[in-house]
């Protein structure tokens, strides 16, 4: 009797596990499971990076108020580097399809930010005390606080408040020009120091038979920001969203679509 009861229990457990396995490995349930994992990951990512940029803004404003713009970079250096470098994951997100943003738009934006963060601010202390650092950091941090909190809410709740949507697609009207102006100004200020130091430049002869001039590469980057030049037309062909005037028009188009869509809903 006990043997029969034990065998019956084993059979019931086996049926239960078989049913669970069939459910787990069915295409529909697996897709649902992966969708949940995706939303949890993106929610955590957006809110963690949001916290990083909030810290950057707090330290920047606090230092600006207490000791002036000369000390802003020193106060925000570590959180700025961490928050901005974390954006590299967004390229990966686009590549694997976690988000719909095209890599052609994401890559140049993140690349230019990383160039400023590591190639200019970190590498050349001579520009770290300039007032443009404060305007750059504040423009970046406000932009990213709005953006990451917007997507954090959308991933967590499936929607964002209408005022948040308006901020997401309107704040760039002011913050993009101030950010771009600060970027161009800091790159320009760094040029003499780049030329003198020859940092990151590779001279021939060498075993790789290769040369690289960081000074001229920086001038090329700077030319991308200037509207109406041949270099702008060249880079617009490669990546339409990477160039300042074209990017601004692209964002205006995004704003119009997003706000008109919200009105219909």
TrEMBL record:
GO terms for biological process: fatty acid biosynthetic process. It catalyses: a very-long-chain (3R)-3-hydroxyacyl-CoA = a very-long-chain (2E)-enoyl-CoA + H2O. Its EC number is 4.2.1.134. It is found in: Endoplasmic reticulum membrane; Membrane. Pfam families: PTPLA (PF04387). Keywords: Endoplasmic reticulum, Fatty acid biosynthesis, Fatty acid metabolism, Lipid biosynthesis, Lipid metabolism, Lyase, Membrane, Transmembrane, Transmembrane helix. Pathway: Lipid metabolism; fatty acid biosynthesis. The keyword Lipid metabolism applies. Catalyzes the third of the four reactions of the long-chain fatty acids elongation cycle. This endoplasmic reticulum-bound enzymatic process, allows the addition of two carbons to the chain of long- and very long-chain fatty acids/VLCFAs per cycle. This enzyme catalyzes the dehydration of the 3-hydroxyacyl-CoA intermediate into trans-2,3-enoyl-CoA, within each cycle of fatty acid elongation. Thereby, it participates to the production of VLCFAs of different chain lengths that are involved in multiple biological processes as precursors of membrane lipids and lipid mediators. This is Very-long-chain (3R)-3-hydroxyacyl-CoA dehydratase. It comes from Brassica campestris (Field mustard).
């Amino acid at each position: 009797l006990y043997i029969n009861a034990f065998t019956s229990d084993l059979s019931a457990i086996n049926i239960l596990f078989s049913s669970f396995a069939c459910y787990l490995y069915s295409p529909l349930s697996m897709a649902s499971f992966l969708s949940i994992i995706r939303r949890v990951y993106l929610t955590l990512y957006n809110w963690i990076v949001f916290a990083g940029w909030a810290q950057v803004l707090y330290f920047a404003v606090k230092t600006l108020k207490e000791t002036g713009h000369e000390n802003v970079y020193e106060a925000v250096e570590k959180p700025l580097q961490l928050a901005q470098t974390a954006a590299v994951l967004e390229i990966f997100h686009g590549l694997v399809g976690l988000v719909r943003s095209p890599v052609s738009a994401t890559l140049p934006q993140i690349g230019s930010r990383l160039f400023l963060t590591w190639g200019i601010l970190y590498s050349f202390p001579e520009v770290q005390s300039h007032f443009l650092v404060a305007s750059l950091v504040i423009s970046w941090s406000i932009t990213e606080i709005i953006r990451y909190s917007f997507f954090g809410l959308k991933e967590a709740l499936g929607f964002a408040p209408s005022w948040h949507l308006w901020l997401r697609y309107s704040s760039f009207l002011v913050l993009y020009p101030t950010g771009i102006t600060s970027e161009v100004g800091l790159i320009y200020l760094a040029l003499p120091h780049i030329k003198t130091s020859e940092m990151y430049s590779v001279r021939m002869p060498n075993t790789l038979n290769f040369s690289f001039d960081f000074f001229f590469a920086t001038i090329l980057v700077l030319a991308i920001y200037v509207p109406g030049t041949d270099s702008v037309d060249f880079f617009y062909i490669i990546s339409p969203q990477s160039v300042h005037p074209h990017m601004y028009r692209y964002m205006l188009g995004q704003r119009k679509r997003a706000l008109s869509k919200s009105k219909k809903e």
